[in-house]
Amino acid sequence: MHLPPSALSSSLRIGKVEIRNRVALAPMSGVTDLPFRMLAWRFGAGFVVTEMVASRELVCNAAESWARLKNSGIDPHIVQLAGREAQWMAEAARIVEANGADIVDINMGCPAKKVTGGYSGSALMRDPEHALSLIEATVKAVDVPVTVKMRLGWDENSINAPLIARRAAEAGVQAITIHGRTRMQFYNGKADWDAIRAVRDVVSVPLIANGDVETIADAREILRRSGADAVMVGRSAQGRPWHPALLAGVAAHPDAAGVAEIFAEHYSMMLDFYGAEVGLRAARKHVGWYLDRFAPALSVEEKAAILTSNDAKLVRERVASAIACCGAETGREGMAA
């Protein structure tokens, strides 16, 4: 499969749901909260996915799980569920469908120890039969499309994504996302885009390729080498929520003043969403990413002063000033074609 460059801006169907273009924002726990998703969606990302929602905790009414489920005008509303027991996954899927989810995504890719230690996320790939029981229960529980995001396998000696993907599709899963690394690689080394093609060879449902997509050229190349239908970007969007849309060719890179304006809005949205006290802390990682990308010459001391400040007005002013000093070209690496 070789999609022309223009294909990145074309639509795609996942079951009965139409996706407006082929570059998506990956679900990232602690990153893709509602403010981030709203911005990425507004700029033109093909679709965005919630942070992973713990299935049992959602069923048991945990406040954090319900906060992660929130939506605000994003269409389609895609909710990612994590869990290790079929009954909780099925019940959580019914809950999210009843609360407006258009697609339910199953997390089988998270490499974090606190997730895999609970036999969720990519740990499910160590036991394909058990993983399939969760998938089957989730598919049967809802009428909306169910998708799965996974890695190539647990380690280099157990590359079983093709097997699990084929059986997942047979069970009714309507799209599959593959991150081109094993769990044991975490985010080290280079994602293996060629290895994703083995999944393409055994499934006909939409395939989404993920891992190390930084530029427009990367997006085109991962499609060519993997045979995938779409691309998902994660870390490359940190500090620039417009990035998926830029790679899809439906948005332009903002100039320095535009970046500062976007940052100020993003920062304010986080303070409103979490409340001032929690928002200040939650926003710090995002402040750091904006500064790393658009004010790399900022001294360690100046950066630390911004990150530790509890004065929201001062943070906005100092970030805007730091970005303005770097000019409009910094952070434009995604434009390379």
UniProtKB/TrEMBL annotation:
- Look at the named UniProt entry and state the broad enzyme category this protein falls under: oxidoreductase
In its UniProt record, a GO molecular function of this protein is: flavin adenine dinucleotide binding
Q: Where in the numbering of this chain does the DUS-like FMN-binding domain appear?
A: 25-311
The active site annotation covers 110
What keywords is this UniProt entry annotated with? Flavoprotein, FMN, NADP, Nucleotide-binding, Oxidoreductase, RNA-binding, tRNA processing, tRNA-binding
The protein's Enzyme Commission number = 1.3.1.-
Question: Is Secreted one of the keywords UniProt gives this record?
Answer: no
Q: Which CDD domains match?
A: DUS_like_FMN (cd02801)
The cofactors required by this protein are: FMN
* Residues annotated for FMN binding in this entry: 80, 149, 179, 234-235
Q: Signal peptide span per the entry? A: none
The reaction(s) this protein catalyses: a 5,6-dihydrouridine in tRNA + NADP(+) = a uridine in tRNA + NADPH + H(+); a 5,6-dihydrouridine in tRNA + NAD(+) = a uridine in tRNA + NADH + H(+)
Instruction: Spell out the family assignment given in the record's similarity comment.
Output: Belongs to the dus family.
Annotated function: Catalyzes the synthesis of 5,6-dihydrouridine (D), a modified base found in the D-loop of most tRNAs, via the reduction of the C5-C6 double bond in target uridines.
Q: Which protein is depicted?
A: tRNA-dihydrouridine synthase
Q: What organism does the UniProt record list as the source?
A: Sinorhizobium sojae CCBAU 05684
